[in-house]
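lol forgot to send this yesterday, sorry. struct tokens for the thing we talked abt
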């Protein structure tokens, strides 16, 4: 029995490879051997892998959130594949083709399968896909459904539970089963032409595109909208209000919520899966969490805004907290912990050099260093859960954990060689961690800010005012078309401002994480502390 929310069975040679991605569903299926069969069962995160031979049975159970259903054993004919959606997960691709009463019939199969496993109000969606060289239209779809084709044909059948009819998600994919769903999908880049009619938002958006027309690439890709197939070069225009999103394996249009006037409690306690546009100001006490972008036409005062894809405030941000980018805090925490661990290791290395030998026993090691080590191990495990985002390379993670666990937790002695190896691995890990900056980039643009906290995985731009006594943190650049007066600034690469510091004696602290970073300002006042990489300086004359 396999336990998996998303189980991919793919025939390779004379084996069927099964990749289990969740632990939440159950399904019984008899699989014959055929090189064109691919079976998909829905889910999210890969946890393990097993191998099956043709004719073996796969048992999978539905999740608790869906009424328990036992599906009859099924034998699929050659050239077929079936996709079974057991959980509603935003961002999954859905297609509508036909519905036959209470039964679902699979083309090519010798018998009707899954009889009476769904309610009438639930949606059954089909899509047929084939590596077809000529023009594909509705008639061609019907013909493909009515007769067998060669082994390169794929028949994709989807059963969707509790899915509203109006929620259609358009999915882009190539015409061969090896790269059809998800893991090997083509990445559509900005500048290509394609507009989609979609509704469901996805939390895994990698890129955004604001209303451009994108053209399908010519490498045998098709674009599916409901039951329609669009040829290369055709343009589909969005039929609803929303923002086009380009993901790694899909194209989506996120829904938008427009709030006329000011946003105030209790309506201001808002969680939304798309974009939120506030035509007025955000009043004190509001708390917004959105998966898209937040746009505020007025001011933000004494409020909290969390947005995965960016924040724009045309007015001032006063005594508020803004955060853009879903993994920003995790990244900053990991980076901070790594710096602490490296500092502790340097101290240990100096201690060993003074002793001119090994540290006698573990109980003589600085307790503070061991505490730091325990925190790092805990945070590395948290990062391991996020490795699919590109935040952590598996090889680097294994190396780090091997050295830390084997040399720090279980060994009685700590040698100079062990410390040097740990330093080398952790320094490489610190470099690889910074690749995160190019994975999840969400910027913040505000008019001005005062006594606020502004954190972004992308750039921070202050367009028309000052940043006064605020904490500004960006993994990329900070640009202020005014002055930075007091407060703390931490950026990845560069700080650009008209003026830095004050004449009142209040200290302004600026830290650049990269050694190649820089600070550019027309005027710099005294009491300004600037750190670039490992270098620290006080006020220098402006450029």
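and heres what i got for the seq, position by position
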């Amino acid at each position: 029995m396999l336990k998996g929310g998303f189980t991919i069975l793919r025939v390779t040679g004379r084996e069927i490879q099964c990749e289990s991605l969740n632990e939440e569903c159950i399904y019984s299926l008899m699989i014959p051997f055929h090189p064109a069969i691919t079976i998909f069962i829905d889910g999210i995160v890969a946890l393990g892998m097993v191998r099956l031979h043709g004719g073996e049975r796969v048992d999978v159970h539905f999740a608790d959130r869906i009424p328990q259903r036992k599906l009859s054993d099924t034998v699929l004919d050659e050239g077929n594949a079936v996709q079974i959606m057991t959980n509603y997960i935003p961002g999954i691709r859905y297609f509508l083709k036909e519905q036959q009463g209470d039964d679902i019939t699979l083309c090519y199969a010798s018998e009707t399968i899954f009889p009476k496993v769904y309610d009438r109000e639930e949606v059954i969606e089909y899509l047929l896909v084939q590596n077809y060289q000529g023009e594909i239209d509705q008639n061609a779809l019907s013909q493909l459904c009515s007769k067998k084709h060669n082994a390169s044909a794929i028949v994709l059948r989807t059963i969707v539970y509790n899915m509203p009819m109006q929620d259609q998600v358009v999915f882009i994919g190539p015409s061969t089963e090896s790269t059809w769903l998800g893991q090997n999908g083509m990445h559509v880049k900005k500048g290509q032409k394609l507009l989609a009619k979609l509704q469901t938002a996805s939390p895994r958006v990698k890129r955004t595109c604001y209303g451009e027309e994108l053209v399908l690439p010519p490498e045998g890709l098709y674009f599916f909208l409901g039951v329609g197939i669009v040829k290369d070069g055709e343009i589909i225009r969005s039929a609803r209000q929303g923002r086009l999103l380009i993901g790694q394996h899909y194209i989506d249009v996120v829904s938008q919520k427009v709030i006329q006037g000011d946003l105030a409690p209790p309506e201001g306690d808002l969680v939304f899966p798309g974009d939120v546009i506030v035509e007025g100001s955000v009043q004190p006490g509001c708390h917004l969490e959105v998966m898209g972008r937040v746009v505020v036409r007025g001011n933000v005062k004494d409020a909290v805004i969390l947005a995965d894809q960016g924040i724009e405030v045309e007015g001032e941000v006063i005594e508020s907290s803004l955060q853009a980018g879903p993994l920003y805090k995790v990244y900053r925490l990991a980076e901070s912990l790594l710096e602490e661990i490296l500092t502790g290791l340097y101290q240990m290395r100096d201690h060993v050099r003074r002793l001119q030998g090994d540290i006698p026993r573990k109980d003589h090691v600085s307790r503070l260093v061991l505490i730091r080590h325990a925190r790092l191990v805990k945070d590395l495990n948290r990062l391991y859960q996020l490795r699919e985002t590109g935040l952590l390379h598996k090889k680097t993670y294994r190396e780090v954990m091997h050295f830390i666990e084997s040399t720090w937790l279980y060994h009685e002695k700590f040698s100079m060689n062990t410390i040097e190896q740990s330093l080398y691995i952790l320094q490489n890990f610190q470099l690889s961690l910074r690749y995160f900056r190019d994975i999840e980039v969400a910027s913040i643009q505000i008019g001005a800010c005062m006594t606020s906290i502004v954190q972004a995985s992308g750039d921070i731009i202050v367009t028309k005012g000052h940043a006064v006594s605020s904490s500004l943190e960006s993994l990329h650049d900070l640009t202020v078309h005014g002055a930075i007066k007091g407060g703390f600034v931490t950026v990845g690469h560069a700080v650009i401002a008209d003026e830095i510091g004050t004449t009142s004696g209040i200290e302004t602290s600026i830290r650049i994480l990269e050694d190649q970073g820089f600070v550019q300002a027309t005027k710099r006042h005294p009491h300004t502390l600037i750190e670039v990489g490992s270098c620290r300086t006080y006020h220098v004359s402006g450029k």
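The chain has a mean pLDDT of 54. anyway ping me if u want another try
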